[in-house]
Amino acid sequence: MAEKSERMRAADVLSALRTMFTSRTVLMVSASSAFRLMTQAGLLTFLPVFLATQMGYSPIWIGACMLALQTAGFVAAPIAGHLSDRMGRRRIIMSSMAMTGLVLLLMATIGRSTAFVLFISVLGFFLFAIRAVMQAWILDAAPKSMGGTSIGILFGTQAIGAAVGPALGGIFADHYGLMATFYFLAITIVIANLFIFFTPVSETRFGTNAASG
């Protein structure tokens, strides 16, 4: 009896996964999130390296810059969440990703200057603002009984992006210089935004706000 129950639970899990993998919204948002995590993980890896080797910052100042990056995200997250409830998930996510890509390009262009450091907080504001919004969109698209499954798929793809991003960034840094990594990270966030652009909103339970976003 217990063995039969185990088989039934396994069948339920597989059925749930099949259902989630047929949702284009879940797949597209998860893929976008993977590329966003490539950007985030690459930035958290190579920004301290750049500040140390190119800017000559001491460990305490590198820590202060990383604090500014995360603090800006802490401030931005509830703002982005509130705006996404009112204006739609897609609009907020695409706007934040577009600004992230622009700021990364500006940072790569200006190079070793005070402005580079000033842009760190701006970057954190837009990059970290949409983490909760993407999770909310996944939950909007998933059946009510599969919220945990949908978040599991999202986090799984994020782990892939977080693993691949620093590795690819290191390859670019070795072959083309450390600054090339920031151009690469700008490209990854643009790709993430393209996935959002082609994500359908008709599958979501979010209603008219999502459709208008």
Short structural description:
This protein has 213 residues and is mainly α. The protein has helices at residues 2-21, 24-53, 59-87, 89-110, 114-127, 131-141, 147-176, 178-197, 208-212.
The figure for the number of domains is: 1
Classify the beta-strand content into a percent band. Answer: under 5%
Distance between the termini: 50 Å
The CATH topology comes to Growth Hormone, Chain: A
Instruction: Return the CATH architecture.
Output: Up-down Bundle
Q: Determine the CATH superfamily.
A: MFS general substrate transporter like domains
Average of the residue pLDDT scores: 85
Shape: elongated
Give the oligomeric state of the chains in this entry, treating copies of one chain as homo and distinct chains as hetero.
single chain
Low-confidence stretches: 203-213
Q: Report helical residue fraction.
A: over 70%
Discrete helix count: 9
Radius of gyration: 19 Å
By DSSP, the count of extended strands is: 0
From N to C, what is the helix and strand string?
HHHHHHHHH
The biggest sheet, with number of strands, parallel, antiparallel or mixed sense and barrel status, is: none
Helix/strand class:
mainly alpha
Q: Mind telling me the CATH class?
A: Mainly Alpha
Can you tell me about this structure?
This protein has 213 residues and is an all-alpha fold. It has one domain: MFS general substrate transporter like domains (Growth Hormone, Chain: A, Up-down Bundle). The chain is 85% helix and 0% strand. α2 runs antiparallel to α3, α3 runs parallel beside α5 and α7 packs antiparallel against α8. It is elongated and about 55 Å long. The C terminus is likely disordered.
